[in-house]
Amino acid sequence: MKRIAVLTSGGDAPGMNAAIRSVVRIGFSRNIEVIGVRGGFRGLIEKNFNPLLPRDVSGLLEKGGTVLLTSRTDEFKSEEIQEKAIENFKSEHIEGLIVIGGNGSQSGNFALSKKDFPVMGVASTIDNDLWGTDYTIGFDTAVNNAIQAIDKIRDVATSHARSFIVEVMGRDRGFIAIDSAIATGADIVLIPEVRFDIGKIIKNIKEGMEKKKLHHLIVCAEGAIHARDLEQIIKSRLDIEIRVSVLGYIQRGGSPTRFDRIIATLFAERALTELIQGGTGKVVGIKDNQIVLIPAEDAVTKQKDINSSLYKIIEEVSV
Amino acid sequence: MKRIAVLTSGGDAPGMNAAIRSVVRIGFSRNIEVIGVRGGFRGLIEKNFNPLLPRDVSGLLEKGGTVLLTSRTDEFKSEEIQEKAIENFKSEHIEGLIVIGGNGSQSGNFALSKKDFPVMGVASTIDNDLWGTDYTIGFDTAVNNAIQAIDKIRDVATSHARSFIVEVMGRDRGFIAIDSAIATGADIVLIPEVRFDIGKIIKNIKEGMEKKKLHHLIVCAEGAIHARDLEQIIKSRLDIEIRVSVLGYIQRGGSPTRFDRIIATLFAERALTELIQGGTGKVVGIKDNQIVLIPAEDAVTKQKDINSSLYKIIEEVSV
Amino acid sequence: MKRIAVLTSGGDAPGMNAAIRSVVRIGFSRNIEVIGVRGGFRGLIEKNFNPLLPRDVSGLLEKGGTVLLTSRTDEFKSEEIQEKAIENFKSEHIEGLIVIGGNGSQSGNFALSKKDFPVMGVASTIDNDLWGTDYTIGFDTAVNNAIQAIDKIRDVATSHARSFIVEVMGRDRGFIAIDSAIATGADIVLIPEVRFDIGKIIKNIKEGMEKKKLHHLIVCAEGAIHARDLEQIIKSRLDIEIRVSVLGYIQRGGSPTRFDRIIATLFAERALTELIQGGTGKVVGIKDNQIVLIPAEDAVTKQKDINSSLYKIIEEVSV
Amino acid sequence: MKRIAVLTSGGDAPGMNAAIRSVVRIGFSRNIEVIGVRGGFRGLIEKNFNPLLPRDVSGLLEKGGTVLLTSRTDEFKSEEIQEKAIENFKSEHIEGLIVIGGNGSQSGNFALSKKDFPVMGVASTIDNDLWGTDYTIGFDTAVNNAIQAIDKIRDVATSHARSFIVEVMGRDRGFIAIDSAIATGADIVLIPEVRFDIGKIIKNIKEGMEKKKLHHLIVCAEGAIHARDLEQIIKSRLDIEIRVSVLGYIQRGGSPTRFDRIIATLFAERALTELIQGGTGKVVGIKDNQIVLIPAEDAVTKQKDINSSLYKIIEEVSV
Q1: How many domains does chain B contain in total?
Q2: Residue B250 and residue A246: Cβ atoms within 8 Å?
Q3: Active site includes C127?
Q4: Minimal C-alpha gap between A219 and chain B (Å)
Q5: Is the N end or the C end of chain A the one with fewer CB atoms within 10 Å?
Q6: C-alpha distances in angstroms, C27 versus C24, C52, C268, C269, D154?
Q7: Which domain holds residue D124?
């Protein structure tokens, strides 16, 4: 291979820039020309291509978001569009593609590789919901962002002896919620994967009040229940001062952590190495502390389980 | 004076702990016994008093919130309650009080001082809306919190070429909104003090889109319009990708900045000095870079103006 | 078991407080009384014991350092001292001990367990140099601290087109240096485990200058060479503006990260569970993403290898 | 005026980029073409000029350092060089210059304005040592950086009951030292402006030890005494565990604070306005909370005094 392309797709995640930098720098070391596709799969169709040299990616390790921009992947489901993309690559002598992104984005990886265009994926989404990998690029930073925000909210909770419901990201999965809850000492966590029992929550809070707990902290994933709705339910049942905070997009941005910068650098290196050696239709992730290759089909179709021992410890620590 | 009390009241603000520490430590230096009142004016009525020694306030400079806890001030408007408070002080040989708080809290200062109990106030509220002082303790930290959050949101905005409306605190006043807007390069700021023209906002965004601006950032004070409502209005008039973030309580917590730690230390020193020397019914603030005394009555009744030159510069910088 | 003790020992590490909290809270859940030993092994000899209840450890998750204080472990090597410690435990009906610390501290674990007193260890040191565990509590935070510092230094380097040598902690091992170097895009890393060739370093910098690199960043572990010495060597061979920064103790403090808070909570839970079930002379760590038990003897005598693939990638990415 | 130039000079300071952005954006609003000079006064001589448009300065508010790069100002003292600079400006139809920098840099302002070339200065240096202004751009961020570092060191100090000497920047002036000391609760501060009495320091520490203070924190400006030297002196007189930390360049970098972003925006606006209206040989600063103009000659020749009330309060608070 002489020339490959790289794109970021789906929700942006801190560390995507570190992965782009790694592809460009290591590609250059190995005499591969790297073309940046601007705007995700859309840029692929619009042929928004720009060559990237080592100096173009200086300073990117510490930068949140993605300098290649990103977009939704919906329209890329059409086979016609996929063929157009491959045509665009061929007309520019681009022989392979690296897709940095999460679930939806790796569907594009799967689709193109089925059409015999070589593609390797790099697992990157703050949601950490990709099958086959313990971590995805961006998750560690997102949870650290959430933790720092909740630490601030705890100052307010403590000063006013006031309880709080904090809503974190996670439409379908509770990974961010669970880690944030343990790391901030939440009393209760609500995630989409586990049906919750409102009676038990009320009982838990009541018992805490009897034990003279000055405040309670509930962390809920947006996909379990909206914080506002939970607030209404609790207030209808208990005479308690309770406030709501929806963390939102601050979880998604910011300078990536050690963990995300390093796995981004390693994932990208591996994706490039595999692509050169003829690999395709796979996603690079990390499993049991080893860099691994996941079939793109599995990554996008199978469901990753939450860590139930993490989930269970929350109750025991919040005595 | 031999023995005084100190309390924090109203919304908690970063730097309140630094002010408590300063009262306790400097009181000790000057042979004044300092009694901490727990839970604001409510603790005063419930006689929730604890003596504080220098070692009790170690490590407080960097701590957000208030270790003395705080509460709303509504019930303290009753004269009966006020007299009960003075009685409680007298029974414990407490000869003066320092009230750390904002608008509502300094009404308590004014009320007690009118009844001839010596009180000095320390201007502290993240809202910065106290007449007679350029800054109140907590404002600088709150805006820095808002800025760091908006910097993260900007990563998302840039990566997706998506506009954002960020709602900051400020029910009646736009101080946080204006400073956050300038410091993050917002294109538009909406504050309660200035009627806004929705037509002009739409025109501004349209012109930006024509100039190929990839995204717009609007900062609004909660008291001007709720971000969700503004989002609906804009979407009904423009075909634009726009998202909302309500920063909420994360503005209020966290470790105080240089500015807040230092003014907290200085305000408290001055309040104590004045109290000992017979001062009462005043609030310590900072005006034109000098520590000043503001009559409590003025502080709570007069309205502080926004800085219109700051407000005007936003438009010019957002070209 | 009805009553156990917990202590922190050796260099303090962010997350030690989270581990203490986890022992106390989970102990309480399981009807085990937990006694805090103040000041490490020294406190054990001086019988500096205090019972800890769930409310005593509130707010500890986010707090750096160790509230139980710590001390060097040298004098604990004497058998007489060890027997005195066991005697002290027996006189207070303490039936087991949890030791939170690194290498030297787990020697104490090994010594006491050999004398048939039940001890479990929790792997905690910023240096990450404990055999049998991929990570120790405190390492992730320390490297993130280093990264944030180096990101700031990079602003200065870039603005002045000036090279920098940054010295990080690590007397015997290069774990902090390697991770910091990859995560900040250092051009060169020097670690105690690998003999470096000064000629190659000079050549590397010269080539960078020819490629119009505006500045170089060298990260060295204190145990490889002191930054000041390296500066002298480089300046004697090259006409280059170079500056030195020794990060020092700022790496060690500060609020722990997600990773350290969570592994601290899990390690402590496991140590307690094992201790109750009769385990002794082991250290809890994490290997291949699973919580594991390491024989204390191995933990303190075997040498953990650096990750050579991480080490190698630095050169390739710094083109 | 149709076309002006802007440069940053001397030590880089957080907020310089915000000032550059403000000049470019507001210049554009007012139909002034702005030329960026790369590399400070050196770039002026080498004619390293590039036009800057509003989009070129996007994202600069939050960025530390200076994208225009900077250099020492020594060689610019030659009149010949100064005349060469003016010639370069004239050949490019540049009619005025804005100099963003501190003491040394404003000497260049003074020199060129004496030769009838219109120049306005913007006060920017982390040292805050410019006469006529209460604050310079970068100081607030530098002290906040120092504070966050010292807060981390305090975790270590507390955990080990170990004293610390922290050396901060300030070769000639103690502004950073004084503010850092108050904000972190240092027991002792040493600054170049005040001769210190080593006997008094020893006595102070001894008394603290008698009062059961677990540790002492000394903040010294590099220009008062080097921390290593002070360590030797103290250790020769007292049996005390003491450690040293030299903060160094981490003070200088990083994302600017609210205060620095805002004064940078305002200072630059005022400098531009004055330049257009015929002003020259002045430096924009802030005095008593008002934006002011300082004659460049005064700014570079007169000595700014430290705030003695701040200095005095340190002792009283450290009981």
Answers
A1: 2
A2: no
A3: yes
A4: 15
A5: N
A6: 5, 10, 10, 9, 29
A7: 3-138+256-301
